[in-house]
Amino acid sequence: MTSPNAALQIDDLHKSFGGLHVIQGVNFTVAPGERRLLLGPNGAGKTTLFNLIAGDLKPTAGQIRLADEDVSDLPTFRRAARGIGRTFQILTLFSRESVIGNVIMALLGGRSQRWKPYGAVAKDPALRREALDVLARVRLDTLADRPVAETSYGEKRRLEIAMALAQAPRILLLDEPLAGLSKEERGTVSALLAELPRDLTILMIEHDMDVALAFAEKIALLHYGRLIVDGTREEVIADPRTREAYLAQ
Q1: Are the C-beta atoms of residues 189 and 154 closer than 8 Å to each other?
Q2: What residues does each domain of the chain span?
Q3: pTM
Q4: From residue 246, how far is each of 25, 106, 176 by CA, in Å?
Q5: Whole-number Å distance between alpha carbons of 134 and 53
Q6: If one looks up domain 1-83+170-249 in CATH, what number appears?
Q7: Closest CA to 85 of 25, 134, 144
Q8: How confident is the model at residue 179 (pLDDT cuts 50, 70, 90)?
Q9: SS3 labels along 31-94
Q10: Confidence at residue 171, expressed as pLDDT on a 0 to 100 scale
Q11: CA–CA dist 160, 85 (Å, integer)
């Protein structure tokens, strides 16, 4: 059944690779502006679920709805144009470019200017100002002209978030945004995530439990590709299936 006010709705979603059933009958709904955490041990299917939502994988069965539109068969770039942005477990940056150059390329992704020679477009003062505004949101505007190869790992993580924000998403998928960060860097990224506008719906996969649980309003727990617990933070933490599947590990 379609939920008319949902930002994202997953209905009976399945994904198999041959005889390996990675996602099995997953159902959940995310409200506009919600902060949703996906929990589960390694191999539970969390990143596969993100890949299905973003369009990097096609479901074996089931439906993915963005607002009131079925996007299950749309390719990745069309889903991005409709408002799905994401980051990845493994950084995906243009390391030979500058920090601002990466954001400019993200801004160009959905615009007709992307067909023009990059060297000329990148010098557009209005585009540069827009990119600087995005970098300011993740506190990287002072490093705008620094080559990405010369930035720290934590700065690269923030840059990837900036590139996702540059596309003005309605739904942001964050795949372990704190992975590999120092305590100080985790604090910086956590603070900037808390400052994101409430009209942006966020789904996050994260193994730093202190940060993740403070961030989440609702939690979905995956185990062997099945959604076994779904509810508020308090409900999921109290459920014995959570301890069995994840927290006790």
Answers
A1: yes
A2: 1-83+170-249, 90-168
A3: 0.89
A4: 20, 35, 16
A5: 24
A6: 3.40.50.300
A7: 134
A8: confident
A9: CCCCEEEEECCCCCCHHHHHHHHHCCCCCCEEEEEECCEECCCCCHHHHHHCCEEECCCCCCCC
A10: 97
A11: 11
